[in-house]
Amino acid sequence: MRSILHSNKIKKVVIAGGGTAGWVAAAALSKQLGKLIDVTLVESDQIGTVGVGEATIPPMRVFHSLLGIDEQEFMRATEATFKLGISFKNWGQIGDQYFHPFGTTGQGSFLAEFQHFYLHGKSRGVNSPFSEYCLEAQAAKSNKFATSKTNSINYAYHLDATRYAHYLRKFSEARGLVRIEGKIQHVQQHANNDIKALILESGQIIEGDLFIDCTGFLALLIEKTLKIGYEDWTHWLPCDSAIPVQTASVGPAVPYVTCTAHSAGWQWHIPLQHRVGNGLVYCSEFMSDDDAKQTLLKNINGKTLTEPRTIKYKTGRRKAFWSNNCIALGLSSGFVEPLESTSIYLFMNGIVRLMKMFPFNGINPELIAEYNKQSIDEIENVRDFIILHYHVTTRDDSEFWRYCKNMSIPDSLSHRIEMFKENATVFLNDREMFRLESWTHVMFGQGITPRSYHAIFSTMADTELTAHLANIRSTIANVVNKLPNHAEFVQHYCKAVE
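The structure corresponding to this sequence follows.
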């Protein structure tokens, strides 16, 4: 980290770039700090956005609560549906299927989490699937959903990313944010390398005290200007290409994403109210762009509404997220493929982290160091969780899967896997996005069978054990039976205008 000190009070924040990341930052700053600072966003209508990610995870609801966003209004504006988790097909081996739900699973004890109870039940002949102990998994399986004060369903959303950015733009401008149309031609710096101003093609000069880089993969400020460097994770996450395409809906929207593995990557299916988001993620070393496009088009239903386009990327992160008076947010900060729908959350958390640490009285190296540490810890925990899906597999039907199965992995992930293999223990680091149940469902789903488990539940009589596990399952089944159909609930709760 450079030894710097920007002692001036921070009065004007300039966001370079729009898209989802830019408008998330704009909405948060204008709502929470708008009376203390001036916020300006610079974007060009000539520059398109990647806009691939259309699925989210539950912490997004916390962010919306912070901003006071009305859920029904937001969902109508973005043609959103509800998401209870992800259905994974063909990951552990061809023909396999498991579900990663968002909610809690079963009920453990102070000394041992539920997976130990579940494993002891299996040893005594109770062979019900792990997912039957999770309300969200069973609701998704039955295509049921409802929000109410009487149930504790944990959920996220499927949404139209472009419409979401438009929604946040209106939200931000209503709270005083200034949007300037224009393409950035040059970045002007102070003598100490701090960014002084953005120079637009029109000649307009946009000065600021703090700059947020939301220029996507271009990383115009953090990389092109400050040259911070990039840590490449391609050796762990070899997929480097994606082809998205939208299709017309051919049936009711289900409350989950489907991720189906293929010979060189995976395909997504995300149902919105009036259409479906589809796409193929693949490694160009093992599949050509033309083959990928054909594979995608052969495995979608409904009329295509957009032309498939190829997006190239490199998984990894910037060596620092905050340098000088510039913070990278969104794709400019790095990229972890969208397998677990983490992108929007990462930049939401990034802007919340900035607001908590906001340098009203000036920037100092200690503040930058702490922001970077927290940001790096967070994205590396996400990285490990994504690598888990690829590495823990028995697939050997293609060169791609043989590589993933045999590749070296980060020590941090190896430690987690070995702890679970040995005694079913899930180890969590600080600032974890994915909690106990997420790791447990994926490790079970990918085919890990622990060698042992905690003995605390072995003192239960078999009849008591069986009855208790059956009671958990029946309680969940009774709740699911009373829930309405997901698509019908969406129509009643937040129907969008087509």
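The longest helix spans residues 365-391.
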